[in-house]
């Protein structure tokens, strides 16, 4: 056990405590592992968007969808293995941080957690 625990990444509370392998904030209820707080690194790295396997994404990259996605209004979804070219990284809504054009579906936003860098 360390002498000083890091503050809560959600609300910056200094009253965090350890429970097993997790750190817990009593004020907001956020739970996280100490390894993930070390992996977040410096604030300059906080804006980096990573794919499902941890590769850093950049504008213009080509990515592959790793799981079949349902698309509202479409009888078939985007199948796993679909390549998406020339992505743009955006501050999207609800975790959708990739703006792209998927062939056969048109423009849409994807979550970086469902793609991997090709």
TrEMBL record:
It comes from the Bacteria. GO terms for molecular function: hydrolase activity. Keywords: Hydrolase. Residues 4-33 form the Protein YjdM N-terminal domain. Residues 49-118 form the Protein YjdM C-terminal domain. InterPro entries: YjdM, YjdM_C, YjdM_N. Gene3D superfamilies: 2.20.25.10, SH3 Domains. NCBIfam families: phnA (TIGR00686). Belongs to the YjdM family. This is Phosphonoacetate hydrolase. It comes from Streptomyces dysideae.
């Amino acid at each position: 056990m360390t002498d000083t625990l890091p503050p809560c990444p959600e609300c910056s509370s200094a009253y965090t405590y350890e429970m097993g392998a997790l750190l817990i904030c009593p004020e907001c209820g956020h739970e996280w592992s100490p390894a993930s707080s070390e992996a977040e690194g410096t604030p300059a790295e906080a804006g980096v968007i990573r794919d499902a396997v941890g590769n850093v994404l950049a504008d213009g990259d080509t990515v592959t969808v790793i799981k079949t996605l349902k698309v509202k209004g479409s009888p078939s979804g985007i199948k796993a293995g679909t390549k998406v070219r020339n992505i743009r990284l955006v501050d999207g809504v609800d975790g959708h941080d990739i703006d792209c054009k998927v062939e056969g579906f048109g423009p849409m936003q994807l979550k970086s957690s469902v793609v991997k860098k090709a």
